[in-house]
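Troubleshooting: if your tokenizer reports a length mismatch, compare your output against this known-good record of 96 residues.
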Amino acid sequence: MDYGPDDLVERDAPEPPFQQLAGILRARLARGDWKPRRPIPSESRLCDEYGLSRPTVRRAVAELVAAELVFTVPQRGTYVAEPTRGDDGQDDAPDA
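Known-good structure output:
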């Protein structure tokens, strides 16, 4: 199922909450809510914002890490990865 950046996690949906949150965060990344190499909200803030437990939020963020959309820095947080060629269909290098 596709999720929008402004969707909420629905407890009675067929998809597990962590998958819903991962989809919502993907949509927010695609919309540009957070710039590359800048942090996304902390686990505790995402827990509060979406009404989810910390393990659920961690599992959603782990999906984004596995997809190489974000990366974690121990004791610092989770950051947006640099876009790679093909993420937006364009080459980031300037034209020669």
